[in-house]
Amino acid sequence: MMSYKEKVERELKRWEHKINRPPSLPAGLSKRWQNKINNKIPEKIHNIVTESVKHMVQATLVGSDYLSELDRVTEATLEERDRQFDGRVAMYKRTAAVEGAGTGFGGIMLGLADFPLLLTIKMKCLFDAGKIYGFNTDEPKERLFLLHIFQLAFSKEVVKKNSLEKVKSWDELEGVLREENGKSHEIDWRTFQLEYRDFIDLPKTLQLVPGFGALVGATANYHYLEILAHHTKNSFRYRLLTHE
Question: Is the Cβ–Cβ distance between 161 and 19 less than 8 Å?
Fold first, then answer.
């Protein structure tokens, strides 16, 4: 019978393979489609997403906006940590789905408010994960790690692959990060927000349609939490198993 560790190692291999495989659409075609979407979205929406992500990066690095009320889990098996994280994610999925449906009913004005709210839910989920998997999220190094997980989850192919390599070698970068003391230039926040914006544009645009947006909002927000949880769990699993 396969042990839990063996099961996780197999899942991690599939996770890496999926990230590193060639994209299903040619890059040029995908970019042209994305540009068409971007051109139809009001500049006000782009600005709100940009400022929301910029604030999120700054708050993650030096603020207390997303601090978790959970105690740091210092003694637990990987299976126990995974189970606790899954329970926490289920709570955040419900919150995100309800919030997305509520703003979707309201159309464009409430839809605009959804961007920073969903970012907050995602970052709180990440900070919770850090504690559940036994890391000190007060440290600049760990906060940067959370941002790289976010970028891994919500970026296109090239940036996603680069983020995966950083996540896999994170503890080897400790000396460099200590010298930089978590300065924000470690994260190119402009690229960060553009990748995030492009990743979420189509579902979020549909969410701005009154009435119809409620269904899209609830579904999209739930889906985004699933994506984040998948990459978060595997990123922390990789760190723990690599340094056993």
Answer: yes
